[in-house]
Amino acid sequence: MSKILVTGGAGYIGSHTCLALLEANYEVVVVDDLSNSSYEAITRVEKLSKKKLSFHKESILNKEALDQIFQKEKNVDAVIHFAAKKAVGESCEKPLLYYQNNISGTLQLLESMKASNVTDIVFSSSATVYGEPDEVPVKEDADVRPTNPYGQTKAMMEQILKDTGAAYGWGIALLRYFNPVGAHISGDIGEDPEYPNNLLPFVSQVAAGIRKKVTIFGEDYPTPDGTGVRDYIHVIDLAHAHVKALIKLKQDKSTHTYNIGTGRGYSVKEMVETFRKISQKEIPAVCGSRREGDVPILLADATLANKELGWQAEFGLEEMISTAWKWQSQNPKGYKA
Ligand code: UFG
């Protein structure tokens, strides 16, 4: 049985990926400092899978502790690396925090992997590395030119991984997620943000009556209805892409970069309208000004992941929104009791 060490495994995408790994019969070791996540997510993953995983409450910045975890767990076959700070706005206010945490954390992790002879890693990257691309749908060979410190850290971590892979002959998979949304179909695990910066978690809280209204960030974009268009991808599909990437690295030890999206875009207005229909809630929305750094439209060309990983998104908009709503309604306070 293959053993996978998952950093940030208690987080939103991390927890869904741990569940997918357990369901695919992998052994799972989680390293998470719970700074932006909850142990309750791990408990629920274990309940859903009817399996146990090995959990270490530890920061990847603690190199000594990380080395010990690799030693203690023995025979770790590969790593999936999620642990990072991820709020765009905060990264502009506190760039040093982001560079320190994301870059140093990744360096420590790679050093520990090297010391333990672990040579495969799947990395949680983001479409944010493209900034505003010249063409959409965007392909993996488009220019990398992020527009904020958070995006810069993702681009830098990609580069560090590529160089490491090239020097030591490691297997590296860089997964560039588009807009992850939705929750597990049980409604038992989902996204639990301290403050919802992204559209769907915000709309969920408006539908639940926690917030009064959603502000649409700009209605004057050059898009069909004037609002921003994004490529939303169900978190379960995303989780499966990680499992496929692990399999790929076993067969082909080199660096691979994949867009993970559907290629289909939805506008902010379409998202809000579909949420109203599914939740049967009013969801007041007002138009506000554009949010700095937003692009009009971002869509994935995911042909490469389809072809090389045999991966395809299976869930559509209905499932994305109905599972997000199920999670929100069943857990009005997220993982807090
Ligand atoms: N939006 C609103 N109102 C809100 C929130 C968002 O109108 O309250 C709009 C945005 O302007 C955008 C769309 O909804 O057009 C999606 O916004 P999100 O914040 O949900 O997602 P982004 O496309 O901005 O974010 C994505 C990833 C992030 C990543 C970011 C980098 O989800 O992880 O790109 O730009 F950091």
Characteristics:
binds uridine-5'-diphosphate-4-deoxy-4-fluoro-alpha-D-galactose; about 325 residues; alpha/beta; globular; single chain; seven-stranded parallel β-sheet; 11 helices
- Rg measurement, Å: 19 Å
Bound molecule types: uridine-5'-diphosphate-4-deoxy-4-fluoro-alpha-D-galactose
Summed over residues and divided by their number, the pLDDT gives a mean of: 97
- Please summarize the sheet with the most strands: 7 strands, parallel
Given the C-alpha coordinates, what overall shape results?
globular
Q: What is the β-strand count?
A: 14
Separation of the first and last Cα atoms: 35 Å
Total helical segments? 11
The assigned structural class equals: alpha/beta
**Numbering strands along the chain, what is their spatial order in the largest sheet?**
3-2-1-4-5-6-11
Low-confidence sequence ranges? none
Structural overview:
- By secondary structure, the protein is of the alpha/beta class.
- It is 42% helix and 18% strand.
- It has helices at 12-23, 39-49, 63-73, 88-93, 95-115, 149-168, 199-207, 235-251, 268-279, 303-309, 317-330, and strands at 3-7, 27-32, 54-57, 78-81, 120-126, 171-177, 179-181, 214-217, 229-230, 232-234, 255-260, 266-267, 285-288, 297-298.
- The strands form 4 sheets. The chain has a 7-stranded parallel beta sheet, with helices on both faces. Strands 12-9-14 form a 3-stranded mixed beta sheet. Strands 7-10 form a two-stranded parallel sheet.
- Strand 2 (27-32), helix 2 and strand 3 form a beta-alpha-beta unit.
- The protein is globular, with a radius of gyration of 19 Å.
- The relative contact order is 0.14.
- The structure holds uridine-5'-diphosphate-4-deoxy-4-fluoro-alpha-D-galactose.
- Uridine-5'-diphosphate-4-deoxy-4-fluoro-alpha-D-galactose (UFG) is lined by residues 86, 88, 126, 128, 150-151, 179, 197-199, 202, 214-217, 228, 230, 268, 291, 294.
